[in-house]
Amino acid sequence: MGLPPSRSERICRLTAATASRCAAWRFRSSREAPETAGQMFSAFGIMRQLHELLWYLSDALALDSAAPLHVELRRSHDETLRLTLLNPEALQDLDLGAHRGGVNALLLRTSELVRSERPTAGNNLRGADLSTSLFLTQPRLNAAKGDGGTRLPSWLSRPGHWVC
């Protein structure tokens, strides 16, 4: 049966991409191999951003109103997923800003399609539950009408002109 996996190995097995990252460091943590800490932490930051992009792309793929862009969204999702499998050295060489820029442009086009179906400027959002809304921004909220019963995501502030 062999020995049970170490704590580091168990943590690393959370996802295939993470496991491949951990395998690159022979399943050692930065405490066990301090000389790898810089590269590990840098890779973690890059992976966090790539997984954030995957989350946004997955969300966009679930939107029916974004159907005209689904082929491009799927291609971008698959490319981002491929980037999560790069080795640590290749991750360091990745032009993440350029990749994020391309994904951002696609998400902006997606947002335009979705917003064209549901304008929010001046909309009456009184009593609406917006607590799980995606792509909701403070300026869009400020342009709408709401009240004390309108539920908001924790990262947004209730506009001062809303009636409580």
Describe it:
This protein is an all-alpha fold and 164 residues long. The protein has two domains: 82 residues; 43 residues, no CATH class. Helices cover 53% and strands 0% of the residues. The chain has seven helices and no strands. The radius of gyration is 21 Å and the shape is flat. It starts with 6 loop residues before the first helix and ends in a 22-residue tail after the last helix. The N terminus is likely disordered.
**How widely separated are the two ends?**
64 Å
Instruction: Say what oligomer this is.
Output: single chain
The amount of helix comes to: 40-55%
Low-confidence stretches: 1-17
- State the domain count: 2
- Tell me, briefly, the overall form: flat
Q: Radius of gyration, rounded?
A: 21 Å
Strand content: under 5%
The biggest sheet, with number of strands, parallel, antiparallel or mixed sense and barrel status, is: none
- List SSEs in N-to-C order: HHHHHHH
Mean pLDDT: 78
The structural class is mainly alpha
Annotation field: number of helices: 7
Number of strands: 0
Keywords:
164 residues; mainly alpha; single chain
Provide the fold topology:
Elements: H1 7-12, H2 16-24, H3 37-61, H4 70-83, H5 88-93, H6 96-117, H7 138-142
Helix pairs in contact: 3-4, 3-6, 4-6
Give a concise summary.
This protein is mainly α. The protein folds into two domains: 36-117; 122-164, no CATH class. Helices cover 53% and strands 0% of the residues.
